[in-house]
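Input chain follows. Return structure tokens only.
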Amino acid sequence: MRGLVLGDPAAVVGVGGGDGVAAENLRLLWKQARAPVVVPLLQGAVYVCAAMSVMLFMERVYMAVVILSVKLLRKKKYTKYGLEAMKEDLENNNNHPVILVQIPMYNEKEVYRLSIGAACGLSWPPDRIIIQVLDDSTDPFIKELVQLECQRWAAKGVNIKYEIRSNRNGYKAGALREGLKKPYVKECNYVAIFDADFQPEADYLWRTVPFLLENPELALVQARWKFGTAGVWRLQAINDAGGWKDRTTVEDMDLAVRASLKGWKFVFVGDLSVKNELPSTYKAYRYQQHRWSCGPANLFRKMLKEIIFSERVSMLKKFHVIYAFFFVRKIVAHLVTFFFYCVIIPTCVLVPEIRLPKLVAVYIPFTITILNAICTPRSVHLLIFWILFENVMSMHRAKATIIGLLEANRVNEWVVTEKLGNAGKQKAASKLSKKPRFHIGERFHVMEVLMGSYLFYCAIYNVCLGRDHFYIYLFLQAAAFFIMGFGYDFN
């Protein structure tokens, strides 16, 4: 077997005719550049990635300690705010504040009824709540459906407003900003914001708003999505922070950071969850992850000076925001996952002169994985699959992060995540009775296939000529890239 594989990675080109000459030239070039150029650059990249891995490791250890401390001690930071006493005072004195509930939507045919119905079902005095549906739909038929749904709830006595714009400037941030300019918003002190696929429980406001009433330093009370976070804002904090801005694709993070720099505080209510929908297709998930990775990197670029020169926060808080929140979690995490584990480690297999410390190549990622598993014990049986899939997605996240940092093309690309609502169940059931249709243009992903091919070649090379067992990981990771590249989908 070993005799069948060339000992040089450049020799994979065909050997017939002109291809043979090209292969020989390529192999010669590789030999000439290997020692003076390739090896030093690759070794330097290993050291850089090793440093980033240590940074990520320390951040994960810190987060694991915090999470475990909270779980073991059963201590909730927000209990100091006296929620029960505030709720009792509200009920006894009947002094409920006026709450604005905003629902931004865009061509949400499958979920508009669910989100509007959930918002209209919130338990709060009907004369002290305003439901604001911000419809940016471009499909006239869907627009009519949403408007009719609002009229149906209005006929039941719900104070619901149907608002549209003549354009989609600023996308979601623009819609929220325009919504706050309506005259009736002046009587409101707080605003709850739900995406079109959010379905809050009826007692959601009772479990969030009281935190804000007697704690004027609080800007936001966050609840937990089934997969993420949602919350209620103090309107004064939104205005003090400069309002909604559409300069990045993470308008909520932008507002939260600016409010934090103004001295406002936040509370996260971890045991309050809001039902929402995951992306229904791999393509939709890729677009969502591009937005969520590109946006923070671009926001970091835009706000770095603002954070450094902020006068209302301490140096410790500035360091936390710049280093921990942005640099490690939003930039390093994406870059090191892809470049180190999917590019540099496989390449080191082809260049045995490179010194690859097992501490950073094996033990640190293994420890990080264990720490993640401890924090989410219910999903431990999916750990291996999750790691492989996350590494596939890291390719798109790393690309999006670089785009955000360089402010290149697609930096402000906004593709709304398609939502299926209850229709998703119907589609899943119909697929059982219908033959699946394969659309090569939609289901074939070139980048994933190319990465899978490279990893597979490195694995074969490692089996035949390597001195370690990296091929075990390389074969598994190549398989993950191939699965996603050759048409696997969520739906």
